[in-house]
Amino acid sequence: MSLDIKTLVEKYNTPLYVYDFDNITRRYEELKGAFDGKKSLVAYAVKSNSNLAVIRHLAKQGAGADCVSIGEIKRALKAGVERYKIIFSGVGKRDDEIRYALKEQILFINLESEAEMKRVEMIAKEFDMEARISIRVNPNVDPKTHPYISTGLHENKFGVSIDSAKRMYIYAKKSKNLNPIGIHFHIGSQLTELAPIAEACGIVADLVRSLNAIDIDIKFFDVGGGLGVVYDSEVTIKTEAYALAVTQAIKGLDLTIVNEPGRYMMANSGIFLTKVLYEKQNGEKRFVVVDGAMNDLLRPSLYSAYHKIEAVQRDGEKSLADVVGPVCESGDFLGKDVELPIMNHNDILVVHSAGAYGFTMSSNYNTRNRSAEVALMGGEDYLIRQRENFQDQIRLEEACDTSWQS
Question: What's the rounded Cα separation, in Å, for the pair 110 and 94?
Answer without folding.
Answer: 13
